[in-house]
Each structure stands twice: as structure tokens, then as C-alpha cells.
Amino acid sequence: MAATQGTLADGLAGQLREEPGRVSRWLKWTAWFFRHKPLGAISATLTLFVFAVAIGAWTGWIVPQDPIKVNGIDRLSSFFTESVRGDKFYVLGTDDLGRDMLSRLIKGAQISVFFAIGVSLISIPIGGVIGLISAYAGGKFDLVVQRVIDAIQTVPFLVLAIAIVSILGPGIWQGFWAVAILSIPRPARVIRGSVLSAKENVWAEAARTIGATDRRIMFRHILPNVLAPMIVLATFVLAVAVITEASLSFLGIGAQPPTPSWGAMLTGSGRLYFETHPRLAFLPGIAISVLVFSTNMFGDALRDILDPRLRGR
Amino acid sequence: MHRYIIRRLVFMIPTILVITIVTFGLLRIMPGDFIVAQMAEARGVDEKQLDIWRKELGLDVPAPVQYVRWLGGIVTGDWGTSFWQNKPVTSVIAKALPISFELGFLAAVIGLIIAIPVGVASAIYQDSWIDYVGRSISIAGISVPNFFLATLVIIYGAVWLGWFPPMTYQNPFENPWGNIQQFVPGAIVLGTSASASNMRMIRTTMLEAMREDYVRTARAKGLAEMSVIYKHAFRNALIPVVTLLGFQIAGIIGGSVIVETVFSINGIGRTYIDAVTQRDYPLVQGILLILVTVTLLSNLLVDVSYSWLDPRIRYS
């Protein structure tokens, strides 16, 4: 008993001793990232910031006011104004219905981010598995799958998304399913390419020789080796999802009012009151741009790091 | 080469078939049809009358039969009649297509004019501030949604220049100035977003070309740096850039849906949105067929010109 406790305590102490090591390795890596890819590192920080805002909005901690509550007497107030009744403070002013812009932007971040994460969580695993099996199986199955993917990728993303949403009816969930389904081909294509080259490696051959099953080779040997391009891909899927959601909402077939989607904010009051209150269009427009920009930039830096051919001298 | 082109053309057919089947199916999964969409506001319309209309529009038979009929019509040149506009689909498309072509062509040219210098400079000065500015511009081009950019152009065009997009189509031969006013702002918006991915591509191919042996040889024999970059690296890096035009097409078609809507240009994109919201099946099907064919043909053209530019590439 005493011996067991001894080893337990030793193990714990060992872990504690190891913990700073792990943290400092992370710190070192972060410092390296910031020094060599400053733009990528800043973008990563920005992306994480928007993600944190989205989680905060979800828990309700950081939404200062009800984003869909109409306050008629406070309509179109400017930056840093107090409400007429004196009970609220509008940091970014209010829109044409007197709704707090800051709260709407924060809630909008939640919609965009959750939309993008949801799309990635559905499309990348499904697309990845399709690509993996397609490359591994080869033959007729591969041919058919690739032709279908070719066909879907031929039509521009937004054009098909509009068609699907018009079938399902306008709404945020309809838009979500449309974008999620249409995002599947790209990961499938990318993963297929990586798997095709990975499965020719000596270790894949070795695994086959010692009698590993196909499933084991695919998921235990090949999959971990193609994870790097998948991570880069995820950032691009995220960016496309954010921008498509905003486009659909802008065209009036995505999120419906009063849901504070960034795209919908731009098209409604944003365009109507642009001359007198450009703030209403600029704030959501900049919010979309910053999120997509930082995600893309982060992905770009990751690709530079993970693809040794493009590494700087 | 001829055999290769013919084989590619034949392989296009299954791709087009898959797309038409998928979209045909999608459009008919939804509850309600064109008749229901049109009659949603009208009250007291007899069910029998609705059935008569359905029969007239050919909606009374099951979807697979409709598809076969439609496909037969496509082959024989009868693309059906637009439910909503009550005109042959072919004539609606024929009217909208040149408008979109002009917009797309201008956008592609503007996109390349922006992309090439920035992409090359970004590669030559890799990881310097020029590279960072260039890449930021290119990624900003992808990130700033074109509907936001279009909104800015519309509003500030009106405020600063007193410019409003003309509402009707301006023929370039009868009214050149009106035509420019109608197309150029939209083309700039489309071109800017299309140029973004090109810039990244040019940067990458330039980076690869600059590490090639022949570039080292050119430097070693004492050529001026300018000459090395433009005569040796750039010319070779340009070959893959041809594929960019292929990539651009899909981006421009997708973007034109939004740009045409915002700038009220009656091209394919705007017609498509209207047709989709009206559930005008024959028109939606026809437009998708045209879009797919245009994209596939331009991809083929790109691949063929690729081998023409680079003699090392031979297709068999």
C-alpha cells in the first residue's frame, strides 16, 4: 500500500516537474511563431479573440444588452451615448430601431463563428473519410466519387448554395446545411491527394506486409500522416463558411430579422442609412472582413510552416 | 492533341449529366412548386384550375419523366419556356449571357492587372515588408466580401462622384459612356476579389521559379538581377498563371450573382437569383447547364493552352 502511494506521489511529482517543461516548449514555439511569421501570429491571435467573443456571447456574459430589443426613443444614437432614459450606455451607438450595435455585433460573432465551426465539424470529417477511402480503394469507386466531386466543384459555391437554400427555404439553418454539404468536396479532394502519395510510403508497405487490416492501415497509419494539410484546410473551410453565411444573409435568404447576422446587418439598415450613418454598414462589414482576413492569414502562415518547399530562406 | 481534346469533350458529358440530375432532383424535393409559389397570395383558386396549369407547364408527371423530357428538349434545341417570363429559356439566356460575358471579361482583365505586379514583387522580396503588404492586400481581397465592397462603391460613387448605376442595359456601340458607367465599377469590385487568389498563386510559382537551377545559372553568368527576374524567372512562372484564368472563371461567375444584383446589371447572375426565387425550373436548369458548360470548356481551354505554352507538357 505504502509502495503504491509512493509511486503515485512520485508519478505526480514527475508530472509536475514535466509541466513547466511542456509550457515552456509551448512558449518557445509561440515565440518562434511570432518572430518568424509575425503576420500569421497576429492573425491567429485575432481569430482566437473573435472565437472567445463568440463563446462569451453564447454564455451571455459579455453581451451588454439585449441585441434584439427595440428602443424607439434611442434610435440612431451615435458612438458613446447614453440612452434617453439614462439607464443604458451605447458604446457603438444604436441602429435604426434603437438596438445596441455592440451587442448585435457580439451576437453576430457568435452566429458567424458557430456557423463556421459547425460547417467544419461536419464537412471535414465526412469529406476526409470520403477522400481517404476513395484514394485507398482506388478503381471504379474512386473514379465515380471523383467524377461526382468534379461535377459539384464545377458550379460556383455561392450559386449552388443559393439553389439549395431556395429549396429548403430561407433561414440560418437552411443556409447552414447548404454550406455544410457543399463544403464536403474540397476536403475530400485534398485528403485524397495526400493519401495517394502517403500510401506509397515504405511504412504503409511494411504495415501491409505484417498483415495489418485495410482499416487499420487507413486510420492508424495513413490518417495521422495527412493531418497537417487537413489543419490548413480547416482554416479555409472556416473562412469560406463565414463569407457564404454573410452573402446569403446579405441576399436576404440566410438569417432572417431580427437575428443579428453580420451580413443581414449590412444589407438592411446598413444600406438604408448609409449616407447619414455609415457606421451601421461599416461595423458589420469590417467585422466580417477582419474575421475572414485573420483566418485566411493564419492558414497561410500554417501552410508556409507545414510545406517545407515554401519555407523562407 | 486532337484525340486528347475529343476525349476531354466526351468526358464532360457525364459531369454535366451528374450536375443536371442533382439540381433537377434538388429543385423538385421541396414541397410546393411554381404554381403554389405564384398562387400563395391568391385566394379561392380552384384545385382543378391548378391541375390544368400544372398540366400546361408539364408538372403533372413524376420528376424522372420530367427530367427525361427536359433532357430530350436540350438535345433537340428546345430548352423549355420560362414559367415566369413566359419566353423561351434560350432567348432569355441569349439576352443575359453577353452582358455577363462583358462584365466577366473586364473583371478578369482588371484582376490580372492588379495581381501580376503585386504577386511578383511579393515573391522577389519574400518575408520583407513588401511581401507582407502584398500578401495582406491579396488576402484582404479575399476577405472583404464583395457585397461590402460593392455597397461601398455604390454609396461613395453616389456621394462623391454623383454616379448612379444605369437601370437599363447600355449598348457599348450606341452609348459607350453609359456602358462604361454600367460595367466598370462592378468589374472593379469583381476583379479585385478575383485578383486575390491570383496574387497568391503568382507569388508561389515565382518563389518556386526563383529556386530553379536555370535562375542560378543566369545569376552565375553575371546577368543583371532585373534580367534574371523578368527574362528567366518571371516568364517561366507565368506558365501556371494561365490556370489562374481558369480558376477565375468560377469565382467571377459566383461573384457576379452578387455584383449584378447590387449594381442592377441584368446578366446571368441576376436572372439566376430571380429564377431561383420564382422557382422557375426550366430557367434555373438552363442557366446551371450553361454555367457548368462554360466552366468545363474554359478548364479545357486552360489545359490545352498550358501544353501549348510549355512544350514539355504533352497530353496523350
Write a structural description.
The complex is a heterodimer of chains A (313) and B (316). Chain A has a single domain, classed as MetI-like fold. Helix content of chain A is 73%, strand content 1%. Chain A has 13 helices and two strands, in the order ααββααααααααααα. A two-stranded antiparallel sheet of chain A has the order 1-2. The longest helix of chain A has 37 residues. Chain A is globular and about 80 Å long. In chain A, 45% of the residues are buried. The N terminus of chain A is likely disordered. Chain B is built from twelve helices and no strands. In chain B, helix 1 runs antiparallel to helix 12, helix 5 crosses helix 8 and helix 11 packs antiparallel against helix 12. Chain B is globular and about 85 Å long. In chain B, 36% of the residues are buried. The chains are: A mainly alpha (313), B mainly alpha (316). Chains A and B meet through helix 4, helix 5, helix 10, helix 11 and helix 13 of A and helix 1, helix 6, helix 7, helix 8 and helix 10 of B.
Brief summary of the model shown:
The complex is a heterodimer of chains A (313) and B (316). Chain A is mainly alpha-helical and 313 residues long. Chain A has helices spanning 2-36, 38-59, 101-137, 139-154, 157-168, 172-182, 185-198, 202-209, 214-225, 227-250, 262-267, 269-272, 279-306; strands spanning 81-82, 89-90.
Question: What brief labels describe this structure?
Answer:
heterodimer, A: 313 residues, mainly alpha, MetI-like fold, 2 strands, disordered N terminus, B: 316 residues, 2 domains, 78% helix, 0% strand, globular
Write the layout of secondary structure elements.
The complex is a heterodimer of chains A (313) and B (316).
Chain A: H1 2-36, H2 38-59, E1 81-82, E2 89-90, H3 101-137, H4 139-154, H5 157-168, H6 172-182, H7 185-198, H8 202-209, H9 214-225, H10 227-250, H11 262-267, H12 269-272, H13 279-306
Antiparallel strand pairs in A: 1-2
Chain B: H1 2-29, H2 34-39, H3 47-57, H4 63-76, H5 89-124, H6 129-143, H7 146-161, H8 176-210, H9 213-220, H10 225-262, H11 268-277, H12 281-309
Helix pairs in contact in B: 1-12, 5-6, 5-8, 5-10, 5-12, 6-8, 7-8, 7-10, 8-10, 9-10, 10-11, 10-12, 11-12
